[in-house]
């Protein structure tokens, strides 16, 4: 399992999962409007992710290119499992029940869950 990454680091990962490799400037350009982060902030986050071995770096002349070393699906599976284990004793049913009781599930969500369950059974 990948070491936990912060919400800010996750934003950087989402950019790299969409398109990689990218330079720090390219990553900063993609998060600038939404987050307002400076290039230095992005470089700090990239350094942290590299130290956690979540992204790799490759020298390209005077700059570095950054690419994810962990697939998005693999990361999300691990984080989801840890979440369910920690908060719901490893069981998904209490999570879904909690969301349903808190009116967090729309009719579309319920239909999609029902469809998924049919596919899993069939």
Automatic annotation (TrEMBL):
Gene3D superfamilies: Penicillinase repressor domain, Winged helix-like DNA-binding domain superfamily/Winged helix DNA-binding domain
Annotated keywords: DNA-binding, Transcription, Transcription regulation
Highest taxon above the source species: Bacteria
Coiled-coil boundaries: none
Pfam families recorded: Penicillinase_R
InterPro entries attached to this UniProt entry: BlaI_family (IPR005650), WH-like_DNA-bd_sf (IPR036388), WH_DNA-bd_sf (IPR036390)
Family the UniProt entry places it in: Belongs to the BlaI transcriptional regulatory family.
Name of the protein in its database record: BlaI/MecI/CopY family transcriptional regulator
């Amino acid at each position: 399992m990948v070491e936990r990454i912060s919400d800010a680091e996750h934003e950087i990962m989402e950019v790299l999962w969409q398109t990689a490799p990218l330079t720090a400037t390219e990553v900063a350009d993609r998060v600038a409007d939404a987050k307002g982060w400076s290039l230095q902030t992005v470089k700090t986050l990239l350094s942290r992710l590299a130290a956690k071995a979540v992204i790799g770096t490759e020298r390209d002349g005077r700059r570095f290119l950054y690419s994810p070393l962990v697939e998005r699906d693999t990361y999300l599976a691990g984080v989801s499992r840890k979440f369910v284990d920690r908060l719901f004793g490893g069981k998904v049913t209490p999570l879904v029940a909690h969301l349903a009781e808190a009116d967090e599930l729309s009719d579309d969500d319920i239909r999609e869950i029902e469809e998924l369950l049919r596919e899993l059974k069939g």
